Amino acid sequence: MNIPSELINDENLNKLLALNNSHVIEIVSRYADLCRPAKITVITESPEDAAYVRAKSLENGEETALAMAGHTYHFDGMADQGRDKAVTKVLIPAGAKMSRAINSMDRDEGLKEMDEKLARIMAGKEMFVAFFSLGPTNSRFSIAALQLTDSAYVVHAESLLYRQGYAEFRWLEGFNNFFHFIHSAGELNENRTSKNAGDKRIYIDLEGNRVFSVNTQYAGNSLGLKKLALRLAIKKSHDEDWLCEHMFVMGAKPEGKNRTTYFTGAFPSACGKTSTAMIPGQTIIGDDIAYLKIGADGRAYAANVEQGIFGIIEDVNPIDDPLIYRTLTSPREVIFSNVLIRNDKPYWLGMGEELPKEGLNFSGEWREGKTDEAGNEIKPAHKNARYTIRIGELENADPNLDNPEGVPVDGIIYGGRDYDVSPPVVESLSWPHGVFMGAILESETTAAILGKPEKVHNPMANIDFMVVPLGTYLKNHLKFGSDLDRQPKIFATNYFLKDADGKFLNQKVDKKVWPDPRRV
Ligand code: SPV
Ligand code: MN
Q1: Element holding 330 (H helix, E strand)
Q2: pLDDT digits (tens, 9 = 90+) for 386-412
């Protein structure tokens, strides 16, 4: 199969051919032919290509520049403000079994539906072909990832959040051991948000090492490298005996001692994961997704899959989150999503200053009291409004952020949003007991996921991304621990206990010493 020549010029074609990988050519050909973009642009790791993507996102209106240098904002549509579990499905070959908790559908049916949805979906648009690495590059943690999308915002956000992977694809030497992601925002509204968000679909094809995502822009649904790759990597980790987790990685530094002890921790979305990774005086490696592998010395090593943070901006203020606040209020590359804009400045809930009474937000022109179609008041910024930055730009970035060996892990923390049962801190008696504590995690869902809050059973905070039967997943955890010569200690935390009057129990913390971890 060839890429239709009218869609790609020689310069871009040569960038693809230089990879010497027929699988890449085949994928680009297939989806160029199906999606029929007006043109194809290949993004390598050159600074010119990065600048091109940034400029395109501004030019096509997916992002708009703010007053501060490097800052832009992006809006997702009203029905596209979080991960959409209902339309995210694992494609299962005929006869295969899956736990009931995992949303799945017949593979052939799903692939057929996707072919129909993708047909000519990029008409008049540009298709970007971009290369990234999950995990540090040139490392046993790295997984090469190919992104096809008609959204410059998606490639721009991925370039902040993930390491460049064009070189990784050269090193594949023609093999097909990479993940690939096909995304289209679909038709756009005037404000550049997905018009057909009601018809979004996210289908995970484990057999093809690929994920399809259509009619959505929200990063958790659209960025291949984020939660879409997490699902593919969970399957891969099971085939290869390592762990792929919804975990932060941070360095803890005991006061007065010159040593760093690395912890990983899994908390459901918006339950304190980033705040824990950002505890004052400690260092951060990652706040969302980690791969854990066993080192030659028999210890567990963790690497951050990402190099950036797609963090919740609500309650980021100079008191609770001084480092992130400073990073978000100084010149550098930052994408703000779903915040309020007034006079080219971003505003968000809990930022520590009074918000304007009118401005522009994800609902369009906004003024205080505006309601949605159901009559509910629209807040100035969404509760799931976010910022996208590189971790390396934070003052507390750990020196091992990009270490290809990862970091040795001595502690693992599981935490949920449980208002009435789980104790504030528990240490497990053993690795299997710790696996049990992770497995019984219960938590209230949050604005990171579309729909009303509900208390769900969320093993290892990973249930939304599970693509293997739960029993298999837990057995893999038990095996991983028993294969280690030195097992990390496992803890469970709960920051969210309430008293009989519904007030949070541990509200008397001195905020200057220990910012409220119930921020997320
Ligand atoms: C989460 O919701 O767990 C996130 C953000 O980390 S998302 O990209 O939506 O997954
Ligand atoms: Mn997450």
Answers
A1: none
A2: 999 999 999 999 999 999 999 999 999
